[in-house]
Amino acid sequence: MENLQGHSDPRTALVSKLNSLHKGLQRVEDLKRQKVAWARPDQPLAPLPEKWGVLAFLVWAVVLTVASFTVAHPVTDVILKAVLTPLMPLEWAEANVGTAIVIMLAIPVILSAGLALLITVLRNKLLLPWQYSRTVRSNQDRQAHNEANSREFWKNYGSLAAAESDLAAEAGTWYPQAYLHEDAVAFCALAVKNHRANDITAAINLYEAELQHAALLDEQERTRALMLWDSMENAANARATTDAIRQEGARTRAAYDANAARVSEQLRKPQTVYVKKR
Fold this sequence. Notes:
Blueprint: H1 2-8, H2 10-33, H3 35-38, H4 54-69, H5 73-87, H6 90-95, H7 97-171, H8 182-193, H9 200-268
Helix pairs in contact: 2-7, 2-8, 4-7, 8-9
Protein backbone atom coordinates (compact mmCIF):
# COMPACT_ATOMS: atom_id res chain seq x y z
CA MET A 1 0.00 0.00 0.00
CA GLU A 2 2.87 2.36 0.82
CA ASN A 3 4.51 1.68 -2.56
CA LEU A 4 1.33 2.50 -4.38
CA GLN A 5 0.97 5.72 -2.45
CA GLY A 6 4.62 6.54 -3.14
CA HIS A 7 4.18 6.07 -6.90
CA SER A 8 1.00 8.18 -6.86
CA ASP A 9 2.73 11.04 -5.03
CA PRO A 10 2.96 14.08 -7.38
CA ARG A 11 6.47 14.87 -6.18
CA THR A 12 7.73 11.37 -6.95
CA ALA A 13 6.01 11.42 -10.33
CA LEU A 14 7.61 14.79 -11.18
CA VAL A 15 11.06 13.56 -10.12
CA SER A 16 10.56 10.47 -12.28
CA LYS A 17 9.60 12.61 -15.28
CA LEU A 18 12.63 14.85 -14.76
CA ASN A 19 14.97 11.89 -14.44
CA SER A 20 13.57 10.40 -17.64
CA LEU A 21 13.99 13.76 -19.36
CA HIS A 22 17.57 13.94 -18.11
CA LYS A 23 18.35 10.49 -19.55
CA GLY A 24 16.93 11.60 -22.90
CA LEU A 25 19.15 14.70 -22.82
CA GLN A 26 22.19 12.58 -22.02
CA ARG A 27 21.46 10.32 -24.98
CA VAL A 28 21.11 13.29 -27.32
CA GLU A 29 24.33 14.86 -26.05
CA ASP A 30 26.20 11.55 -26.37
CA LEU A 31 25.05 11.19 -29.97
CA LYS A 32 26.07 14.78 -30.72
CA ARG A 33 29.53 14.15 -29.27
CA GLN A 34 29.84 11.05 -31.42
CA LYS A 35 28.81 13.00 -34.51
CA VAL A 36 32.44 13.91 -35.22
CA ALA A 37 33.32 10.23 -35.41
CA TRP A 38 30.43 9.58 -37.84
CA ALA A 39 31.65 12.10 -40.38
CA ARG A 40 34.73 10.18 -41.40
CA PRO A 41 36.21 11.67 -44.57
CA ASP A 42 35.61 9.84 -47.81
CA GLN A 43 38.56 8.32 -49.59
CA PRO A 44 39.00 10.13 -52.93
CA LEU A 45 38.89 8.01 -56.07
CA ALA A 46 42.11 7.79 -58.03
CA PRO A 47 42.00 8.96 -61.66
CA LEU A 48 42.12 6.17 -64.23
CA PRO A 49 45.38 5.99 -66.17
CA GLU A 50 45.18 7.03 -69.82
CA LYS A 51 47.06 5.95 -72.92
CA TRP A 52 50.21 7.74 -73.86
CA GLY A 53 49.78 9.69 -77.05
CA VAL A 54 51.88 11.86 -79.33
CA LEU A 55 52.93 14.21 -76.53
CA ALA A 56 54.37 11.39 -74.42
CA PHE A 57 56.15 9.99 -77.49
CA LEU A 58 57.70 13.38 -78.28
CA VAL A 59 58.83 13.88 -74.67
CA TRP A 60 60.52 10.48 -74.62
CA ALA A 61 62.11 11.14 -78.01
CA VAL A 62 63.57 14.47 -76.89
CA VAL A 63 64.82 13.03 -73.58
CA LEU A 64 66.48 10.06 -75.29
CA THR A 65 67.98 12.25 -78.01
CA VAL A 66 69.50 14.63 -75.48
CA ALA A 67 70.80 11.66 -73.48
CA SER A 68 72.37 10.10 -76.59
CA PHE A 69 74.50 13.22 -77.10
CA THR A 70 75.36 13.74 -73.39
CA VAL A 71 75.38 11.05 -70.71
CA ALA A 72 75.04 8.19 -73.21
CA HIS A 73 77.59 9.58 -75.66
CA PRO A 74 80.03 6.65 -75.29
CA VAL A 75 77.26 4.19 -76.11
CA THR A 76 76.24 6.31 -79.09
CA ASP A 77 79.80 6.27 -80.42
CA VAL A 78 79.91 2.47 -80.22
CA ILE A 79 76.61 2.19 -82.09
CA LEU A 80 77.70 4.67 -84.76
CA LYS A 81 80.93 2.82 -85.37
CA ALA A 82 79.13 -0.51 -85.59
CA VAL A 83 76.53 0.86 -88.03
CA LEU A 84 78.51 3.30 -90.15
CA THR A 85 81.77 1.39 -90.65
CA PRO A 86 80.30 -1.16 -93.11
CA LEU A 87 77.84 1.31 -94.68
CA MET A 88 79.98 4.40 -95.03
CA PRO A 89 83.61 3.77 -96.07
CA LEU A 90 86.21 6.24 -94.84
CA GLU A 91 87.07 7.40 -98.39
CA TRP A 92 83.43 8.25 -99.13
CA ALA A 93 83.06 10.06 -95.78
CA GLU A 94 86.16 12.16 -96.48
CA ALA A 95 84.81 13.04 -99.90
CA ASN A 96 81.32 13.89 -98.58
CA VAL A 97 81.99 15.46 -95.20
CA GLY A 98 78.73 17.40 -94.97
CA THR A 99 76.57 14.44 -95.84
CA ALA A 100 78.51 12.23 -93.43
CA ILE A 101 77.97 14.69 -90.57
CA VAL A 102 74.22 14.86 -91.27
CA ILE A 103 74.02 11.06 -91.28
CA MET A 104 76.01 10.79 -88.04
CA LEU A 105 73.67 13.28 -86.37
CA ALA A 106 70.50 11.75 -87.79
CA ILE A 107 71.19 8.19 -86.68
CA PRO A 108 71.00 8.95 -82.88
CA VAL A 109 67.82 10.95 -83.45
CA ILE A 110 66.23 8.12 -85.43
CA LEU A 111 67.29 5.53 -82.87
CA SER A 112 65.95 7.69 -80.01
CA ALA A 113 62.63 8.16 -81.82
CA GLY A 114 62.37 4.42 -82.41
CA LEU A 115 63.14 3.66 -78.76
CA ALA A 116 60.59 6.28 -77.64
CA LEU A 117 57.97 4.68 -79.91
CA LEU A 118 58.79 1.25 -78.47
CA ILE A 119 58.48 2.53 -74.88
CA THR A 120 55.13 4.17 -75.67
CA VAL A 121 53.72 1.05 -77.34
CA LEU A 122 54.92 -1.31 -74.60
CA ARG A 123 53.48 0.91 -71.92
CA ASN A 124 50.10 1.18 -73.65
CA LYS A 125 49.90 -2.53 -74.48
CA LEU A 126 51.46 -4.17 -71.41
CA LEU A 127 51.68 -1.79 -68.44
CA LEU A 128 48.50 0.24 -68.99
CA PRO A 129 46.01 -2.68 -68.64
CA TRP A 130 47.62 -3.73 -65.35
CA GLN A 131 47.59 -0.15 -64.04
CA TYR A 132 44.00 0.31 -65.19
CA SER A 133 42.69 -2.86 -63.50
CA ARG A 134 44.63 -2.08 -60.32
CA THR A 135 43.19 1.45 -60.18
CA VAL A 136 39.66 0.14 -60.82
CA ARG A 137 39.97 -2.37 -57.96
CA SER A 138 41.34 0.32 -55.64
CA ASN A 139 38.50 2.69 -56.56
CA GLN A 140 35.95 -0.06 -55.96
CA ASP A 141 37.36 -0.63 -52.47
CA ARG A 142 37.33 3.09 -51.79
CA GLN A 143 33.80 3.42 -53.09
CA ALA A 144 32.66 0.56 -50.84
CA HIS A 145 34.37 2.25 -47.90
CA ASN A 146 32.70 5.59 -48.72
CA GLU A 147 29.27 3.97 -49.09
CA ALA A 148 29.68 2.18 -45.75
CA ASN A 149 30.63 5.51 -44.18
CA SER A 150 27.58 7.15 -45.70
CA ARG A 151 25.25 4.40 -44.46
CA GLU A 152 26.75 4.59 -40.97
CA PHE A 153 26.46 8.37 -40.93
CA TRP A 154 22.82 8.44 -41.97
CA LYS A 155 21.99 5.60 -39.59
CA ASN A 156 23.50 7.50 -36.67
CA TYR A 157 22.01 10.75 -37.91
CA GLY A 158 18.61 9.06 -37.91
CA SER A 159 19.23 7.88 -34.34
CA LEU A 160 20.07 11.43 -33.32
CA ALA A 161 16.99 12.84 -35.05
CA ALA A 162 14.80 10.21 -33.40
CA ALA A 163 16.34 10.91 -29.98
CA GLU A 164 15.76 14.66 -30.41
CA SER A 165 12.19 14.03 -31.52
CA ASP A 166 11.53 11.77 -28.52
CA LEU A 167 13.06 14.37 -26.22
CA ALA A 168 10.88 17.15 -27.64
CA ALA A 169 7.79 14.96 -27.30
CA GLU A 170 8.71 14.01 -23.74
CA ALA A 171 9.34 17.61 -22.71
CA GLY A 172 6.13 18.71 -24.39
CA THR A 173 4.75 21.91 -22.92
CA TRP A 174 5.30 21.12 -19.26
CA TYR A 175 9.02 21.87 -19.30
CA PRO A 176 10.43 25.18 -20.69
CA GLN A 177 12.60 24.75 -23.77
CA ALA A 178 15.03 27.48 -22.65
CA TYR A 179 16.15 25.26 -19.78
CA LEU A 180 16.20 21.99 -21.69
CA HIS A 181 19.79 21.04 -20.93
CA GLU A 182 21.41 18.54 -18.60
CA ASP A 183 22.46 20.87 -15.79
CA ALA A 184 19.08 22.56 -15.46
CA VAL A 185 17.06 19.33 -15.58
CA ALA A 186 19.34 17.59 -13.07
CA PHE A 187 19.11 20.59 -10.73
CA CYS A 188 15.32 20.68 -10.99
CA ALA A 189 15.02 16.94 -10.28
CA LEU A 190 17.24 17.26 -7.21
CA ALA A 191 15.40 20.37 -5.99
CA VAL A 192 12.01 18.67 -6.23
CA LYS A 193 13.32 15.48 -4.66
CA ASN A 194 14.82 17.41 -1.71
CA HIS A 195 11.59 19.40 -1.17
CA ARG A 196 13.24 22.67 -2.19
CA ALA A 197 10.60 23.09 -4.90
CA ASN A 198 7.11 21.68 -5.44
CA ASP A 199 6.74 22.24 -9.18
CA ILE A 200 8.71 23.10 -12.30
CA THR A 201 8.18 26.85 -11.96
CA ALA A 202 9.59 26.92 -8.45
CA ALA A 203 12.47 24.65 -9.47
CA ILE A 204 13.35 26.88 -12.44
CA ASN A 205 13.19 30.02 -10.29
CA LEU A 206 15.47 28.34 -7.76
CA TYR A 207 17.84 27.36 -10.58
CA GLU A 208 17.97 30.96 -11.80
CA ALA A 209 18.63 32.18 -8.25
CA GLU A 210 21.47 29.69 -7.92
CA LEU A 211 22.94 30.85 -11.23
CA GLN A 212 22.82 34.48 -10.13
CA HIS A 213 24.37 33.58 -6.79
CA ALA A 214 27.15 31.63 -8.54
CA ALA A 215 27.73 34.57 -10.91
CA LEU A 216 27.92 36.94 -7.92
CA LEU A 217 30.42 34.68 -6.19
CA ASP A 218 32.49 34.50 -9.37
CA GLU A 219 32.47 38.27 -9.64
CA GLN A 220 33.49 38.64 -6.00
CA GLU A 221 36.25 36.08 -6.52
CA ARG A 222 37.52 37.99 -9.54
CA THR A 223 37.41 41.24 -7.56
CA ARG A 224 39.39 39.68 -4.71
CA ALA A 225 41.89 38.30 -7.19
CA LEU A 226 42.32 41.73 -8.80
CA MET A 227 42.72 43.39 -5.37
CA LEU A 228 45.28 40.77 -4.36
CA TRP A 229 47.13 41.30 -7.61
CA ASP A 230 47.12 45.09 -7.11
CA SER A 231 48.40 44.73 -3.55
CA MET A 232 51.15 42.36 -4.68
CA GLU A 233 52.08 44.76 -7.47
CA ASN A 234 52.12 47.71 -5.05
CA ALA A 235 54.25 45.73 -2.60
CA ALA A 236 56.63 44.80 -5.41
CA ASN A 237 56.86 48.45 -6.46
CA ALA A 238 57.46 49.49 -2.86
CA ARG A 239 60.20 46.92 -2.48
CA ALA A 240 61.77 48.08 -5.73
CA THR A 241 61.66 51.70 -4.53
CA THR A 242 63.17 50.76 -1.17
CA ASP A 243 65.93 48.79 -2.85
CA ALA A 244 66.67 51.71 -5.16
CA ILE A 245 66.90 54.11 -2.20
CA ARG A 246 69.18 51.72 -0.35
CA GLN A 247 71.42 51.28 -3.37
CA GLU A 248 71.61 55.04 -3.88
CA GLY A 249 72.46 55.53 -0.20
CA ALA A 250 75.14 52.88 -0.40
CA ARG A 251 76.65 54.56 -3.45
CA THR A 252 76.54 57.94 -1.69
CA ARG A 253 78.22 56.54 1.43
CA ALA A 254 80.87 54.83 -0.67
CA ALA A 255 81.61 58.08 -2.52
CA TYR A 256 81.74 60.02 0.77
CA ASP A 257 84.10 57.45 2.34
CA ALA A 258 86.37 57.52 -0.70
CA ASN A 259 86.51 61.31 -0.66
CA ALA A 260 87.21 61.34 3.07
CA ALA A 261 90.03 58.81 2.59
CA ARG A 262 91.63 61.00 -0.09
CA VAL A 263 91.45 64.09 2.14
CA SER A 264 92.94 62.21 5.11
CA GLU A 265 95.74 60.91 2.93
CA GLN A 266 96.53 64.41 1.75
CA LEU A 267 96.61 65.67 5.35
CA ARG A 268 99.04 62.94 6.44
CA LYS A 269 101.57 63.86 3.78
CA PRO A 270 104.38 66.26 4.91
CA GLN A 271 103.77 69.81 3.81
CA THR A 272 106.56 72.01 2.36
CA VAL A 273 106.42 75.62 3.51
CA TYR A 274 108.13 78.24 1.39
CA VAL A 275 109.35 81.40 3.22
CA LYS A 276 109.92 84.46 1.13
CA LYS A 277 113.23 86.24 1.96
CA ARG A 278 113.23 89.99 2.32
